[in-house]
Amino acid sequence: MVIPFIASSTVLFAAGAVFAYLLLPRGLNFLLGFAGSGVVPLISFDHYVAFVVLLSIAFGVSFEYPVLLIFLLLVGVLTTSQLRKARRFAILGAAVFAAVITPSSDIYTMLGLWIPMVLFYEAAIIVGRLLKR
After folding, report:
1. What is the pLDDT of residue 119?
2. C-alpha angle 116/118/129, rounded to 5°?
3. Pick from 39, 64, 108, 128: most CB atoms within 10 A?
4. For residue 86, which of 99, 67, 73 has the smallest C-alpha distance?
């Protein structure tokens, strides 16, 4: 079981980093357009790189969410019925997590992180049910 977990973790982390990179222009346009046309943004290269790296790590780590859930299902700590009952709290928790972990305060990156986490939660329930058969 180690090889599938390592492979899926690597693929999901890379997918999260790529997704963050693709979402980056919308978030930056929102943040830079927030001040208006009379303000000229002064973005240094090191701040931009730090922002991109932090955003990529945040998305990469959060895309590991289904791997954690499936691991907990396989070990027996959680059951699919528990996950289904806690769906509302998981959706709320994912929204709070997305709002806190994203380095910018725009809605695009928050929704860009929250929606995949909710989808991953639902996918983990489905995969957990298939693995129990």
Report:
1. 94
2. 110
3. 128
4. 73
Q: 34 versus 21: which is more confidently predicted?
A: 21
Q: Could you tell me the two tokens for 82? A: 């528990």
Model pLDDT for residues 32-85, shown as the tens digit of each residue: 777 667 777 777 889 888 888 988 998 899 999 999 999 999 998 999 999 999
- For the chain, the domains span 2-132
Instruction: Read off the pTM.
Output: 0.80
Burial class from Cβ neighbours inside 10 Å (0-12, 13-18, 19+) for residue 97 reads middle
Distance (Å) of CA 7 to CA 4, 64, 99: 5, 11, 28
Structure tokens at 101: 């972990």
Contacts of 60 (CB under 8 A, 6+ apart): 12, 13, 14, 16, 17, 20
